[in-house]
Amino acid sequence: MNASSEGPQRRGPQDANASSSDEIQQLAKRELNFFQTLKAVGWGLFGVRKGKGYHEDIGKLNPVHLILAGLIAAVIFVILLVLVARWMVSAAVA
């Protein structure tokens, strides 16, 4: 019996890493620029994005841009919360 008659061949970890690397490279070549990704993340934070637009963006967003935009949005959100909290505390003390 040869290996092809035993059923589907199993891929080794090196083959899986190579295909993952190829997939990541393909995803990184998507169309939208960083500003468009920031805009999509902003709409997502407010929850006002329509389903059709969301599905269109998912197919075009660059995952690297998406992660960076999410981190930037989270930092800005935390800074705004801290500023509002300080303002409220200072207003309550005065």
Structure write-up:
The protein is mainly α. The protein contains four helices and no strands. It is elongated. 6% of the residues are buried. The chain has a domain of 62 residues. The protein starts with 12 loop residues before the first helix and ends with a helix.
Number of helices: 4
Q: What is the terminal-to-terminal distance?
A: 87 Å
| Structural class by sheet pairing and helices | mainly alpha
Shape: elongated
Which whole number gives the mean pLDDT? 75
Question: Concise description?
Answer:
With 94 residues, this protein is mainly alpha-helical.
Key attributes of the depicted protein:
94 residues
Task: Map the helices and strands.
Elements: H1 13-27, H2 34-46, H3 51-60, H4 63-93
Helix pairs in contact: 2-4
